[in-house]
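Usage

Read records sequentially. Each one opens with the input sequence:
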Amino acid sequence: MNSSSYEYLDKINSPADLKNLSIDELEILCSEIRDKLIKTVSKNGGHLSPNLGTVELTVAMHYVYNTPTDKIVWDVGHQAYTHKILTGRRDQMDTIRQKGGISGFPKRNESVYDAFNVGHSSTSISAAFGIAKAREIRGEKGRTIAVIGDGALTGGLAFEGLNNAGRYKKNFTVILNDNKMSISRNVGSIAKYLTHIRIRPGYIKTKKIVEKILLHTPVIGTPIRKLLLRSKSRLRVSVYRNTIFEDLGFVYYGPVDGHDLRKLIHALNAAKNVRQSVLIHVMTTKGKGYQYAEDDPGSFHGISSFDIESGEPISSKKGFSAHFGEQLCGFAKKDSRICAITAAMKTGTGLVNFSHNFRERFFDVGIAEEHAVTFAAGLAAEKMVPFFAVYSSFLQRSYDQLVHDVAAQNLHVVLAVDRAGIVGEDGETHQGVFDVAMLNNIPNTTVYSPCFFDELGTAMYNAIYKHDNLVAIRYPRGSQPFRPKRYVPDEVFSVYGDGKDAAIVTYGRIFSYAAQALEILKEKGINVTIVKLNRIRPISQAAVETAAKFKKVYFFEEGIEIGGVGELFRFMLGEIGFDGTFELTGIKDKFVPQSTVEDALAELNLDCAGIVNKLTWN
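and closes with the structure output:
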């Protein structure tokens, strides 16, 4: 199918255009959208299998509801590409996740159809309910709909929202998109519970039949019905067989085939007429319509550019996540205390092999980072050595648990902080630039920031055998960067170069750019020494004293400046009487927008050219 000549998609400029199409025409439109999605993501990368699974659901919602008067709040938002296509952004899809292009997630400043900024899991119900209540207070018309996946339902915030919204006596709709997965396959009691509902889809029909009979039974029918509704007895359960959602106050519809437009439209229209909170349970297939994604939805959840015909990624260099997983398996083979924890990110954090080889010591807790940290604390309290592998931006969700449950008890928990620093195309909600400042103010905490695979292995060894407190090891997304031949790593800090003009202090992968800059600066007659911090908390006093020997010190940090390593390093220099000049280059008080990692680092003056320019100008 030629992407420039779609029969129906080319005519859709807003959701209003959907309402002129028949169901058969909408089904053709869905096929065209899938073609558009596959071609777009194969070029730009992004979230493919979640979007392929929600095409019919998104079309049905915009067909039934009157958006943007009716507001749709997406959970995570990685499945909202079809929503963007239908809401006037079809011709901008080629720019998705690119610098200056549209976001891979809903953004309020991008479209009136995007009701709430998202990117992290389990927020939709709380946000949508807040929107609904605000509109009620102002007397505005319009419905509010939260769309949440079964994976996101494993997050505690989702249940806090359900608990609050279930008592609402006006129309509020939650659509549960059940594809049996988050990124990896769902685990735990919630997953089992939803499976239990799926295998008995006729119970709603049974309930209606029982109610109909009782309502038409003279004299005693209505009283018996009311008694059953109030009763907590086994008789009520056997007749009504309520779901947990109904117990929370929701009217429950489902399960509904999420790829059958007629059934979806019927369920959505039915929900519109209910004056209380409604939950529609929709069954979808992640990766629907592209065989490679259907067969391996985890790999195609978030993927870089790939070949459509073969399904193979364009680039497949070994990354830090994979190396971490290999190293952890090696340590676990020799040490039975070592455990691995993931918050529904087994594939993304490199723990697939660990999960197969050490089943009894592998724990996927679902999308529940707060629980993961406190669970790890419990393991540590009993002398196990738990590694919690988590993306930097998701670690933010567990700050209280790190402080209260781990550090305050000085428990030996290891955080494998993946995707640290700039991650690129996923933008503001996923940049791993806050973890250092967050961890920097927690007592009893040690932080390593390796630049290369061997340094990662050393940091892991130290975390297991040289520390008995909270230890974080932060490493970037992707493969290891350029490594100078003369570089000799050290556990705490390394000195590279022998220049006398200035010192460059840095950590993590920025060292690679600094090492390249050193050679260019040398050609310009500027000779520098690099002080590379391998352990960034606590900062080595010897590293500070080494930098203090220079009249000019330049600190480059791939993280937020406020509360970061650079600020503390400057303070420590002052404490020992440093009277030279100090200049910090990091991320100012702002969020970093989407672009490639290379473009973002260049924009922040953290790449080779930026470092050269900074020292040349001074």
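Summary fields computed downstream for this record:
- The domain at 9-200+245-295 is CATH 3.40.50.970 (Rossmann fold).
- Residues 417 and 474 are 4 Å apart (CA to CA).
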